Amino acid sequence: MFNVSDLPDTIAVFPLPGALLLPRARLPLHIFEPRYLAMLDDTMKTRHRLIGMVQPREVPGSAERKLQAIGCAGRVTGFSETEDGRYMITLTGISRFRVTQEVGGFTPYLRADVAWSGFERDLGPAEDDTDFPRARFMTLLGRYFASQNLSTDWGSLREAEDELLINSLSMLCPFSPEDKQALLEAPSLQTRRETLVTLLEFALRGGNDDEIMQ
Fold first, then answer.
1. Among candidate residues 98, 123, 148, the one where a domain is terminated
2. Would you say residue 106 has pLDDT above 90?
3. What is the CA 198 to chain-centroid distance, rounded?
4. Domain co-membership, 197 together with 149
């Protein structure tokens, strides 16, 4: 468990479009680019072992890309190396953060100064969604999975706790980077669930406004 005082002011950041990490969730990553191999080597030498997952964003009228304002830091909790020098790692989400500025320097990977204020709830226990209409949600999810030709272990989904279910689906469903960012920035589990429902309904509608969960 981390306290706010344990969190560093500067972290390595991994700008990966479409990759979403949420607090207390796990994200597997395959690391093979030399700059990110260096990032991982340096991260493993730190006490906190944190990497910031943050999506890049386009700058209108420019080919330049900046970082989204909000990302989520994960601690390296799983690690294995392949025979050809690549890494398979698992990040466990610790807390969201706000990028205050990108940090220049001699590392081949990006680093950023970050602020953790406003996300103290991320460091606490799992959230509950007391108004979660689970039966209707599962019906909607079944229609969505069928429309996308996706398969899953429905037994595990039905038994999953609210946060695990909602966050896992937010991370795994094939939404756009912009939609993933909206899910990341949701201030509460209930808001994330409402955003997720909106995205599922939008994918199902296909121009037909009748496909709305009632």
1. 123
2. no
3. 18
4. yes
- Band (pLDDT 50/70/90 cuts) for residue 120 is very high
The Cα–Cα gap between 13 and 98 comes to 12
Contact present, 54 and 14 (Cβ < 8 Å): yes
Give me the number of domains the chain comprises. 2
- pLDDT-derived band at 4, boundaries 50, 70, 90: confident
pLDDT at res. 75: 97
- What's the distance, CA 137 to chain centroid? 21
User: Which pLDDT belongs to residue 207?
Assistant: 40
Q: What is the pTM of this model?
A: 0.90
**Beta carbons within 8 Å of 185's beta carbon, 6+ residues apart:** 70
- Containing structural domain, residue 114: 4-123
100 and 41 part of one domain: yes
Q: 82 pLDDT exceeds 90? A: no
For residues 119 and 140, membership in a common domain is answered with no
- Mean pLDDT (the chain, rounded): 91
